Known about the structure:
By secondary structure, the protein is mainly beta. Helix content is 2%, strand content 43%.
Amino acid sequence: MKKISLLAILLGFNIAFGACSDDDAAPAAQNEPFQLPAKAYVLAEQTKRAIVIRDAETGRNVWSWDPYTACVPSAHQDWFINPSEVKPVFNKRYILMTASGGAVALIRISDHKLMFYANCGQNPHSAEILPDGNIVTAESKSGEINTFVVDTIKVLGMKANTVKLGNAHNVVWDKKRECIYATATIQAGTTALFRFKYNNDNPASPKLTNQSRIYTFDKESGGHDLFPVYGENDKLWMTAASAVYKFDVSTDTPTCEKAYDTADIKSVCNSPEGILMLKPTEEWWAEGLVNEKGEELFKMGGARIYKGRWMIDNTFSYPEKHDLVLGQDK
């Protein structure tokens, strides 16, 4: 049984997993690879159950993926209801996503191929790549942090191990300190930041261990988004019911400061181009993203965007160049 390196995966699998034309983007010319714009957003667009990449300079949607054009089996398509997370991973060549219907999925941008997917519970909000290429998710309905063995040959996976953690919303890997951070509402009005170690001695049975609560907000609820701060190596954004915060995790006892008095932000991230936020204008979604001043950056009429990220490498969590094992060649 031979293992495939990431390079082999990038060069192989030329036939997409039922990849069809995009909804809102013109398909690339035959044999012409997709060119990611220099400045782009990736969006969780719930109206079409789609992941969308949008050129930040031209305002054009240049790439999209949904479970229908990807030919996901009909029995599993409802897992992709209401996309709830989007993260560029593996040198911006893949998208890691979750959806409120239960899906976690890894999608290759170049050919729209669904590399891996699974059901991670009733309402996942976040996912992360672990150092060995496996995946961890945060699911709020049952309060589960789930780990998955990623096999890009089998494609469909299932939970490997589960940790219960209140109303879990986030997972972020810290490569420098070799740990996972997660947030959860542990009781009404109390949100906490947790830290786990990852036991990767046995990639066939990925487990989180050494759970510890390292910060507690006694009068704050939500803990909705947790994401690395670009340009500040030891800091994490966190959004909550009343404000946007920054954690400094450079010591064993994190400190926290309020960054913006902006309530109910669903996602936050930054790049050299500025700060992106998703502030709902209807229930939990909006038609576009805003900056830290609340100024609208763009609007997609009729869209229901839940999260938006800059398409940049996240060096807090991942090495600058990836060479991980993502599957097995049988």
